[in-house]
Design goal:
The chain has 297 residues and is of the alpha+beta class. It is 42% helix and 17% strand.
Length: 297
């Protein structure tokens, strides 16, 4: 696997106790909302054209966050900055002051990714009422000539690292390793995005089924009290429960098809290899991974 695709195995501080809650989001607004776009539309920045190579010299760097739903590609763009990429410290300070929402640290990056997914890509109604949840965050690529996102193969444990950092950014003790990784993904003829893959949530489905069961029982009891007809009451309750069971079975079938299709598409997709030239070798090299979890003392 090309070292460009390997994100840093940034260390996490993990306590032996239960998982900590997600940190609260910061107040600064970031990114560019590119809203819903059909798959046939180009996945690109507004200033890009099909004949124009990507600019790799800017001191700031952007990465797209995407999510595919019902035939549409929902996209949002966030921007990072690294002091070493600026010509002078004054340029870095000027960009931080004048450009709102630039991301400087690994922790801020994953907090921003989480907030963008929750508020921009998912929205409050899906967060409250959808039966789906986030399954993984994967890397996809696109080019100036073909902006359709193509999955890039990375090991499953690397996806777990990304998802853990997304859920627990406060446990990162690296400063800018992930920011540097975003810069390394930036190439003249190739760009990358983080795609959010959703799946059916067992917990949410169980809550929905339990609510349906409680509702059907309540209907039966209330009907029997008001109409004094126990048989009809629980016939109606049984119908409500049966309808819920059919719905649950349908969701299970859809979930199975969805998961198998997604996994098969990854297995059939050839790895995206972009051999770096000798001048880029040092920049694209990734340091030896450190232990993911801080061991107990």
């Amino acid at each position: 696997m090309n070292p460009i695709f390997s994100p840093p195995h940034a260390n996490f501080y993990v306590q032996a106790s239960a998982r900590s809650p997600n940190p609260s989001a910061t107040d600064d607004e970031v990114g560019i909302d590119l809203s819903l776009r059909p798959f046939s539309k180009l996945l690109k920045q507004d200033e890009d054209t099909a004949e124009k190579l990507f600019d790799t010299e800017k001191p700031t760097c952007s990465i797209n966050l995407i999510c595919q739903r019902n035939g549409f590609l929902q996209k949002y763009q966030i921007h990072v900055i690294n002091k070493d990429r600026c010509a002078t410290p004054d340029q870095f300070d000027s960009l931080i002051t004048n450009v709102k929402g630039l991301i400087k640290t690994d922790s801020q990056f994953f907090k921003t990714v989480k907030r963008t997914y929750d508020k921009k890509l998912r929205g409050i109604w899906r967060r409250l009422f959808s039966l789906k949840e986030l399954r993984e965050i994967r890397l996809v690529s696109f080019t100036p000539l073909d902006h359709r996102p193509v999955p890039v193969y990375i090991p499953q444990y690397t996806k777990h690292d990304i998802l853990f950092a997304y859920r627990h950014p406060e446990k990162l003790h690296s400063t800018d390793e992930w920011i540097q990784w975003i810069y390394k993904l930036r190439q003249p003829n190739q760009r990358y995005a983080l795609e959010f893959i959703e799946t059916w949530s067992t917990l949410r489905i169980m809550i929905a089924v339990s609510t349906l069961l409680l509702l059907s029982t309540s209907v039966g009891v209330i009907w029997s009290i008001l109409k004094d007809d126990i048989q009809t009451a629980f016939t109606i309750a049984s119908f409500v429960l049966a309808a819920g069971t059919v719905l649950l079975a349908a969701l299970g079938i859809v979930n199975s098809i969805d998961s198998s299709t997604s996994d098969e598409s990854i297995r059939n997709q050839p790895p995206q290899n972009i051999p770096p030239d000798q001048d880029q070798a040092k920049e694209t090299a990734v340091s030896i991974p450190q232990p993911l979890i801080q061991p107990r003392q």
